[in-house]
Amino acid sequence: MADAKKTLHVKQVRSSIGCPADQGKTLKALGLGKIGRTVDQVDNPSVRGMIFKVKHLVEVTED
After folding, report:
1. What whole-number distance in Å separates Cα of residue 4 and Cα of residue 9?
2. What do you get for the CA distance between the two ends of the chain, in Å?
3. Are 12 and 33 in contact (CB under 8 A)?
4. What is the pTM of this model?
5. How confident is the model at residue 5, as a pLDDT?
6. 3-state SS, residue 29
7. Which contacts qualify for 29-37: CB closer than 8 Å, 24 or more apart?
8. Which of 4, 23, 45, 62 could form a disulfide with 19 if both were Cys (CB 3.0 to 4.6 A apart)?
9. By CB neighbour count within 10 A (0-12 exposed, 13-18 middle, 19+ buried), where does 41 fall?
10. Residue-wise over 7-27: b if at least 16 C-beta within 10 A, else e?
11. DSSP-derived secondary structure letter, 23
12. Mean per-residue pLDDT pooled into runs of 10, the chain (63 residues)
């Protein structure tokens, strides 16, 4: 079987208004920016760090 990479489903559930600017930029780097938007990201330490920074604004499910 081929080496399947794990992915994380990240959904924005809260607005970044009122948050520090770097958290808004982190959401943009993840591919988010509007409430309800969902993206699939590769599960690696870099992405995990970005998600940790905005954990109060997103919901994450593992695949």
Report:
1. 16
2. 17
3. yes
4. 0.88
5. 84
6. helix
7. 30/54, 30/58, 32/58, 36/11, 36/12, 37/11, 37/12
8. 23
9. middle
10. ebebebeeebeeeeeebbebb
11. H
12. 79 97 97 97 96 97 90
Do the beta carbons of residue 12 and residue 37 sit within 8 Å? yes
On the CB side of 1, CA atoms within 13 Å amount to: 3
Q: Which alpha helices (DSSP H) does the chain contain, by range?
A: 21-30, 45-53
Residue 61 near residue 8, CB atoms below 8 Å = yes
Strand order in the sheet with 7-12: 38-42, 7-12, 58-62
Q: Give residue 13's identity as a one-letter amino acid code.
A: V
